Amino acid sequence: APEDQLPNFVLTQDLDYREVYEAWRRLLNEKRRLDELWAWQGRTWSDFCALAVTLAVRAIDGARLVASSPVVLFHDHDQGAWFGADRPLAVYFLEKQRLVVEIQYRPKYVGRLQETLAAPIWLRIGTQSSMELARRIPVWPRLVFSPVNLMDEAANCADSISQVAAKALVHRALIVHSDPATGVAHAGSEGLRVTSIGMAPSGRWLLEGFNHIG
Length: 214
Description:
By secondary structure, the chain is of the alpha+beta class.
């Protein structure tokens, strides 16, 4: 039957029919929910990568949490988003490197040069005494459905953004693919180093992804 089909009054009074009809409506709602998730999967992958980056920094030896935003998990997605948080997501102090790392996800206000790079995730790295000239690491989540050449991806990215990156205090950059099959690759151009990785939401490739990010 069409999804907008409505039973007549006589059918709704039949107990057996009503039970079947209610089950049919539940199936339609589940199908609609899956269709929505498919449509918003790019945003869902972006959310996942933001949390993965935060946890990977937390796992660095000597990392100490300075401050963090409360994270509210949603029972259902809001335009693809599965959690809500303030900005920044978290601030860590790396004792061994004596560095402060601030993790920003979809920041409202970024510099003009950073805005041109269109990265939804940013790491801002400074010292205990100053964050004014903090270096930045942009992170691009990429939802892909077939294997990509990570080395070519990293090299193309490095060549494309190297001039802007130098002015924007960007010396490292990260691309996180949803394809776990090809590991990690690095490429550089004019002082910029780009890392391209494949990462899965569970299992061995999730752990390796954390290690690559860290």
